[in-house]
Amino acid sequence: MAPPPIPLSDLEAQHAPLRAELEAATRRVLGSGRFILGPEVAAFEREAAVALGTAHAVGLSSGSDALLALLMASGIGPGDEVVTTPLSFFASAGAIARLGARPVFADIDPETLNLDQRAACAALAARGARVKAVVVVHLFGRPAATAELAAACAAGGVALIEDAAQAIGAARVGRLGRAAAISFFPSKNLGGFGDGGLAITDDAALAAELRLVRAHGAREKHQHLMVGGNFRLDELQAALLRVKLPHLARWTARRRALAARYRKALGGLPLALPPEDAGCVWNQFVIRVARDRDGLRAHLAARGISSAVYYPVPLHLQPALAPLGYRAGDLPIAEQAVREVLALPIYPELSDAAADRVAEAVRSFVS
Ligand SMILES: Cc1ncc(COP(=O)(O)O)c(C=O)c1O
């Protein structure tokens, strides 16, 4: 008999033990008659700020909107330039372009796959005063190195914004820059039941600005102080996330244990492993396979093991951003990475035995 398939996540298994609590939370909201910016959002914001170690947390409608709202609250608009990474989900650059600003891509570090802060500093120096912000992405849950970049941003009056969509709970996230955007997309480390997001920051003025931005710029009904949007987290999402939040630390610990297990089992093979990092929360475990990555994917699939490519196209070569004028070859490290990266299953409910099966299947292909 074929062994059971190994998916990329198992939310059913995650939610089964929480079912009664999730249903009670749903009933509580349905019975309350409060669906928008009520007690659940307020309580979730308080609880998230405590859990994530920042002074403020502001519930927003998605990770994409959290990033957009942070850029809006930082005054980014037409004509401004924003330095960011070419290796990320589209939202990292899309949020910049939506505001009429120009994404300026700097290349990545080949080991961490995060924005190379030296390349970002060089872009800051080259573009001068046109650059108003940097969006650094903590890709796959790994905090980006930002010490030099943060100093350069501070010196130039440039806002350092963190895209922590994949990195809830990672070390110092939300404090490396001005603020961080977090996503509750279901596959994230803290997944909601639909879309949702959060901005975390120690900056009280920024948090207050975000509360305006998410409500069309209104503090009081029909008094619009600025042009914002409808970027609110729903009461229902907040109530459900409150059930899951207390389990996040345990789930993160399990992801870390699985990453250590993979690193041990895959050591010494002709592939590049993601570097060790005690602060990483392992939203993905991404290896680099220089020879026949797609062959390995097919080999795993034939054994019932899911894998994924994050991301197959670097952002500077996305058709939607063609007007920026980038060409193949402009960011060679990112362009090579997209040909080699492969994400293996990593989620808290993955058993040691299943992780060992994944590692053995990888080993049997590459060695
Ligand atoms: C790096 C990154 N940025 C932004 C987002 C956008 O988050 P959301 O899907 O909640 O809009 C995501 C996830 O989807 C992401 O992975």
Averaged pLDDT, please? 98
The best one-word shape is globular
Measure the end-to-end span: 26 Å
Q: What's the story with the biggest beta sheet? A: 7 strands, mixed
Derived structural class: alpha/beta
Order of helices and strands: HHHEHEHEHEHEEEHEEHHEHHEH
Radius of gyration: 21 Å
Task: State the strand order across the main sheet.
Answer: 1-7-6-5-4-2-3
Number of helical segments with 4 or more residues: 13
> What amount of the residues lies in strands?
5-15%
What ligand molecules are bound, each kind once? pyridoxal-5'-phosphate
Helix and strand topology:
Layout lengths: L10 H5 L3 H14 L6 H14 L3 E5 L2 H11 L7 E4 L6 H8 L3 E4 L11 H11 L3 E7 L9 H10 L2 E5 L15 E5 L13 E5 L2 H10 L4 E3 L2 E2 L10 H10 L3 H18 L19 E4 L4 H10 L29 H9 E4 L7 H15 L1
Parallel strand pairs: 2-3, 2-4, 4-5, 5-6
Antiparallel strand pairs: 1-7, 6-7, 8-9, 10-11
Helix pairs in contact: 2-9, 3-9, 4-5, 4-8, 6-7, 10-13
Bound molecules: pyridoxal-5'-phosphate.
The site of pyridoxal-5'-phosphate (PLP) has 15 residues, from helix 4 and helix 5.
